[in-house]
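Entry 14. Ran structure prediction on the chain below.
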Amino acid sequence: MAIFSNETPLRFSIFSYGFRPFFLAAGAYAILPIIPWLLYLMNLIEPSIPLQAWHAHEMIFGFVTAGIAGFLLSAMPSWTNTAPMIGKDLKIIFCLWVVGRIFFWLYLFFDNPIFGYLLFVDMALPIALFIHVSHVLVEAKNNRNYIFIGILLCLAIANFLTILDLIDLGLSSFNTGTLFAINMIMITLSVLGGRVIPNFTRNYLISKNSTYNIGKFPLVEKPALYLLILIAILDLAMPHSILSYMIALLACGAHAIRFSRWGGIKVLDNPIIWVLHLAYLLMIIALFLKAIEGLFDIPYNLYLHCFTVGSVGLFMLAIMSRASLGHTGRPLQVKGIITFAYVMVFISAIVRIVAPIFPSILTSAMGLSISLWVLAYGAFLKIYIPILISKRVDGKKG
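Output, structure tokens:
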């Protein structure tokens, strides 16, 4: 018996499949938490709590978590051959995300102890996802995807650590929590990227009658993942340690070897695939930047922006734009404006990485980076809101 029921809605709604409400939410929430940050840079608001911490939390546990939820709730039925979460139960789990966002916005402007303690409600979504995903995967004996059970649990723990610090109950645990969450997201990207990128590339090349062989290096597949897990552990137990930076350098090499066999150069004519390659490449570069920042004492968090703005920003946009087409029965071809959105996120990441190196233009560069990001996700919403709120074009359920 499933934790959540599998009722069939009487009529179409956006709660007819998990990707619909959560991809809409992720697209909108890629932009909303940036607005206070932009107003703060313009000296138009003065938040009651540190805005940088609030912004970091909301981009991780608001934006990214919504994307992860949408993906898992849509992918698990095909992984396990089970019915999807739909209707009332999907509404409930989506409301957990919404309520968490409401309390965090209230706390941004009203530093009230009551609002502070209500922030813990935001842990409800990753915990609910953890329970649901655990039940479905274990019941189906789908051990290949058990790693997502651990990732969701770790995201809940990371959220707990950040909230403790935000309401002054932790011992400077915010940075620990956010870094732990970022490492979990990197592991997620590594697992999903390692599956979908070579598969999508292979299928596309077959359709073009290409004989290029998409291969693997079996000797680095598991070590590449284990090294990321080790980084997550070291960043918890020994943050900013030389050992962590050395492991990051090894992970960079392992993932570069893995990436080298996926034939990215062969798909430059297909934006919906090359954007995935680019997102993964930025993760590899981020690992390299993490290593050299530590080993050579470079004072900027270049790797964090390379990974979060670049790799995660692109991967989220790529997966949402592709999955929304596939799950609604549409051809896997993005419009030109979405291709342009991919490019804008990439440029936004480059500007954000370079900006701290030139303090004299830091504010204007950050403004440019923010503007490009907002335009990119604004383009996603323009094209995909009609897709996400309408029936499948092939008449099927979902």
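Residues 1-10 have pLDDT under 50 and may be disordered. Will compare against last week's run tomorrow.
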